[in-house]
Amino acid sequence: xxxxxxxxxxxxxxxxxxxxxxxxxxxxxxxxxxxxxxxxxxxxxxxxxxxxxxxxxxxxxxxxxxxxxxxxxxxxxxxxxxxxxxxxxxxxxxxxxxxxxxxxxxxxxxxxxxxxxxxxxxxxxxxxxxxxxxxxxxxxxxxxxxxxxxxxxxxxxxxxxxxxxxxxxxxxxxxxxxxxxxxxxxxxxxxxxxxxxxxxxxxxxxxxxxxxxxxxxxxxxxxxxxxxxxxxxxxxxxxxxxxxxxxxxxxxxxxxxxxxxxxxxxxxxxxx
Length: 272
Known about the structure:
- The chain has about 270 residues and is an alpha+beta fold.
- The protein has 2 domains: about 180 residues, no CATH class; about 60 residues.
- The chain is about 40% helix and about 30% strand.
- It is built from 5 helices and 13 strands.
- The strands form 3 sheets. It has a 6-stranded mixed sheet with strand order 1-10-13-5-6-7. A 4-stranded antiparallel sheet has the order 2-3-9-8, covered by helices on one side. A 3-stranded mixed sheet has the order 4-12-11, with helices on one face.
- A hairpin with a 2-residue loop joins strand 11 and strand 12.
- The longest helix is centred in the C-terminal third of the chain and has 85 residues.
- It is rod-shaped and about 150 Å long.
- About 25% of the residues are buried.
């Protein structure tokens, strides 16, 4: 499923570069539309039971993915021609994407179009709220694609979960965003949030099943230990009984031997 994530201006650092020597103005914009290892906004703000934050793990986007992707820089994720500002196709084009240790940086010389001119003016005025990117992850692979972690945190009585994205399979566009509120209210985002809730519920069921299986294994192991303890106790009791029987037999033999000797002595004395 195609998804979008918003990066606030404080994080993405979107700005218009200063003019170089000999230039009257600069049309080059730079920013960080993708950051690894930090929490996103709450992806399920409508939920009464949990908050889910996403963390893009380092390595989820590779240079190989960037080299074979067709990524557009646009306004508010619109692919209408007037809103397209740049493009990186198979690692080449007017949009440059560079993979760093904990982020992806982009730079682009904006075209001389009305919408690009408006975007530049809004950035210079500080009216742009941030950047966003559209992607697809390997959500069906819980080991190498996407996994969910229930933290020990709570917020307003809600559980706090983390959605760890370990592999992104598609990168479609990066956007200069004027209204990030769509991130919380759009139908597409609600569908994504519902899918996330569904995935968490399925994980909870698996964990409950695993707990039941674990309890069953523990009960079987406990029964086995108790059986072994009973058998050991029975062996110990048998050994004590056998020892006692041997002792009694030895005592009886000694008594018979003493009685025989006494009898022999009496007979011998009478003969004398």
